[in-house]
Design goal:
seven-stranded mixed β-sheet; four-stranded antiparallel β-sheet; alpha+beta; about 575 residues; 14 helices; globular
């Protein structure tokens, strides 16, 4: 039996407390202090989400010789010309504003050069060293400062509340609110709002090796699909080339060893001790993430895998003391697992890291559903087919701030809240609560089958045969999840129930990834088809769109609009 729904009301509801969500909260309150702002998060504010896990840094054109035009060209060329160029331009220009805000208003301490200027390190795929950082713990620095500022302001907090579904208005005018679950009590909560920001983050944890924590389950993307919104570029899943391979039975496997290691001159070697990246790209270890990941997988497939099935990263030739000082966090993390990053060899393997695809959104972060905004990894279009390392946290903070400003500008306090569609609300409650009391079956076995299907058939190297096999497997897994239940009784922190809800979202988003990958019959950025290894004509580039209608996924394409520069051209010739 579903308990009675608790009703809450707020002006602005922000789903997620990573860089996008917290920046949105601060900007909303700064622009409109009287608005009632609520941040809802699946865990604890400032203690969960992917921004906190950022090691590398923040890309921004600051130094002499660099420019926003150069940053822009690196971004669209890295994105293989699939980017929404207006969004990419906003990213590189507003990053300059946001980095100063982080320093002067929020109190972030970034590393400095001896002359007092901000230190910027090398990251792969870029023509200039522009990555601002705090050692290799940049995300913790940013989130801690954001969290401090949010706690100082009159912002409502709903911790341990997971979003279940977007509930449209009964009159068809847009979004009415969000159905949530209070994980502390097991009670459903409908939060009615005048504006909602989708900033739950991506989290491709459907893959065998992945970087995000296990509570990340693409909830925002799944909710968007169920609400009928279009997702673009879903085939573009980024694998970070160097995830720690710590052996079976430990969650440390998949943890990122950040790109700065390769940018600083780290080597990738196979089981024979030989470097191999020059065989695949003249840039060697400093090639873009997609190229390095594919190269590692080919080396493994050709029989050169290390003991646990990966390759090695080596830093000792740079001097162990220098490595310990420069990459303190990673050296200590590896040491905790019994590995010597500073002077020895550490096994690594590509690990699912970031979703370039997501909800279609505009320059003010608005979506096709009135009163719903989106920012951060829930959105698609900024990065195109491949995200440059260091552009992720910039994306979250830039568009989180824009979303906060837009919601403050467009929300009218006192305007009547929309009434929710009762049928949609009932359907959402049924979906979430009907599993209670049914046989839980073997959820861990379903998860393992999901891991294997996505890693083997929808991973770094793809074919039509494998993608079709994955579609069949995912269909069976979806049926298995729908039949699976969770124990009823004490619903407080019912972890089996949470795992089942997570799996339902992961399977749905996995189906969207697979459908988009099967539809794209060329290779572009993070998406590589061994049966279509060539990149199609850049001048006629298109992106994929996935929608769920009547319970099935529909795929379409749309032409990329080259609003600022066309393939073969460059903005750099216009820069003095």
């Amino acid at each position: 039996m579903t308990p009675a729904v608790v009703i809450r009301e707020t002006d602005v509801l922000i789903l997620g407390s990573g860089g996008a969500g917290l920046f949105a909260a601060l900007h909303t309150k700064k622009a409109a202090p009287d608005l009632d702002v609520t941040v809802a998060v699946k865990g604890l504010i400032g203690k969960c989400g992917c921004t906190r896990m950022v090691q590398g840094g923040y890309n921004v054109a600051l130094a002499p010789g660099d420019s926003v035009e150069r940053h822009f060209m690196d971004t669209v060329e890295g994105g293989k010309w699939l980017n929404d160029q207006d969004l990419a331009w906003t990213l590189v220009t507003e990053a300059q504003v946001r980095i100063r805000e982080l320093e002067t208003e929020l109190g972030c301490f970034f590393d400095r050069n001896p002359d007092g200027s901000v230190h910027q390190k090398a990251f792969a795929g870029q023509t200039f060293d522009r990555t601002v950082h705090k050692g290799d713990l940049t995300g913790i620095e940013i989130i801690n400062r954001l969290m401090e500022q949010v706690w100082r302001r009159d912002v409502n907090r709903m911790e341990d509340h997971r979003a279940l579904d977007l509930i449209p208005a009964a009159d068809g005018s847009g979004l009415a609110g969000v159905l949530m679950l209070d994980m502390r009590t097991g009670v459903p909560v409908l939060v009615k709002a005048r504006a909602v920001l989708l900033a739950t983050g991506g989290g491709p944890t459907m893959y065998k090796y992945h970087t995000p924590s296990g509570d990340k389950s693409c909830d925002g993307l799944a909710m968007a699909l169920r609400a009928g919104l279009a997702l673009r570029d879903m085939e573009m899943v980024q694998f970070h080339p160097t995830g720690l391979l710590a052996g079976p039975g430990t969650r440390m496997t998949g943890t990122v060893l950040e790109e700065g290691l390769r940018g600083a001159g780290g080597w990738l070697t196979d089981r024979t001790g030989a470097r191999f990246m020059h065989l695949y790209d003249p840039r060697g270890e400093r090639a873009t993430r997609d190229i390095v990941s594919r190269s590692i997988m080919r080396r493994i497939r050709d029989g050169y895998a290390t003991a646990h099935g990966g390759v090695h990263i080596e830093m000792g030739h740079l001097g162990p003391d220098h490595v310990r000082k420069t990459f303190k966090g990673m050296v200590e993390r590896c040491a905790d697992c019994g590995f010597d990053l500073a002077g020895g060899r550490v096994e690594v393997i590509p690990t699912a890291h970031y979703m370039m695809g997501g909800v279609v959104f505009g320059g003010n972060c608005g979506t096709a559903m009135p009163r719903l905004y989106a920012a951060g990894e829930d959105t698609g279009g900024v990065h195109g087919a491949n995200r440059l390392g260091g552009n992720g946290v910039a994306n979250s903070t830039v568009f989180g701030g824009i979303a906060g400003d837009a919601m403050a500008r467009e929300v009218e306090r006192g305007r009547a809240l929309a009434d929710p569609d009762p049928a949609a609300l009932e359907h959402a409650l049924e979906r979430a609560f009907s599993p209670l009391g049914r046989d839980a079956r073997d959820l861990p076995a379903i998860r393992e089958a999901l891991y294997e299907a996505m890693w083997d058939d929808v991973g770094i190297l793809r074919t039509a045969q494998g993608l079709k096999r994955a579609q069949e497997t995912l269909g069976s897994l979806g049926d298995a999840v729908s039949r699976a239940g969770a124990p009823d009784g004490d619903r407080r922190y019912n972890l089996t129930w949470m795992d089942r809800l997570n799996l339902e979202n992961l399977v749905l988003v996995s189906q969207a990834i697979t459908a988009a990958a099967l539809a794209r019959e060329d290779s572009r950025g993070a998406h590589f088809r061994e049966d279509f290894p060539e990149t199609s004509d850049l001048d006629t580039s298109h992106y994929t769109l996935v929608r769920q209608e009547a319970g099935r996924l529909d795929i379409s394409t749309a032409a990329v609009a080259f609003t600022r520069v066309a393939p073969g051209q460059s903005l750099l010739k216009d820069v003095a």
